[in-house]
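Appendix B. Worked example

We walk through a single record from start to finish. Start with the input: the chain for DUF4034 domain-containing protein, Actinoplanes italicus, length 345.
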Amino acid sequence: MLFLAKVLVRRIIGGPLPTLPEFEGDAGLFNPDQVSREARERVLRDGDWRAARDAIEAAGDDWDLRGHRIGVFAGLAAEDDEWFDGWMRAEPSDPAAALIWANVLAGRAGAARGSGKASQTSDEQFHSYHVLSEKAVDAGVRALELASPNDPGPVVLLMGRAFSGGIGGLDELYAEAVRRDPHNFAAHDTALTLRCQKWYGSHQQMFQIARDAAEAAPPGHRTVLLPLVAHIEYALLEFAWEEEKDYDQTLRDAKNYFTSPAVMRDIDRWIAKWRAAEPSTVGATGVRQWMAMYYSLIGNRAEAKRVFDEIGPYVRPKVGWHWLWGEKKYGYLKSWWWANGVGRN
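Next comes the structure step. The output line below is what the pipeline stores for this chain.
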């Protein structure tokens, strides 16, 4: 009742609220790329795999956009592969189809393991994960053989398989991915994650990768915001990684970290560089969620609202909301309400 009263007061004093965020629904609603959205509808309606192929090829050598479209159709193939089987039969050597298949297998491997910590994962889950990961590697190698010599997609996929088999060859794969596409977000983000302290590196290595990539990237490119990702990864490990934790204390610790002057100066610098040019719509929602999280943690309501408004009503909350607030949708929605003048965060 008190919450509804606060909503009513907010509407009277502050004007109408934006559309409430939606976390479920047709995947097309969550896709900012009109070309792949329309192609996906054709595939669903007609089973026409050519629509998927043509949408991917239309990305040209915009490798971030091509990677996004590969992901869209890999998600669709994972749900219903009848149309995709037709593509594979008709064009078994198509590089896009080969990479989609490798991504489908990688997704199945992740689903088999689950999202729990190692202590919460059964031997059977680990076995299925490793078997499917090996199949994903084989498919990734096949995709790499078929791909353009400038396409980083298959290389990034093979980098990601290091989560199951260690980091042998990671540095070489990372260097090759960056050679193919110097500012490729997925390549740098994967390297950052693998070299964080939680996996096969340290906080220092993680921040070095993030800052080097951000420094080299042009304004408006989402790779510029990788240092913010690194700060959040640091906070998750330092304050939120314990199995038994007090979420109120976790949130207090995270707020204390992000409101320290040195951290705020660092993050604000990269956000300023990112905002210095028009960002690409593809992938921007993901990094904007990190920004919304940051502004919510430091109590900057105006900037938090600005970012939530830019994200819009269709969103898949990132896992960071869970680790800091106790549940992804709860953390996102609680912060959204606060940014719009209702409640505390």
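Two observations about the output. The chain has 19 helices and no strands. Residues 31-162 form one domain.
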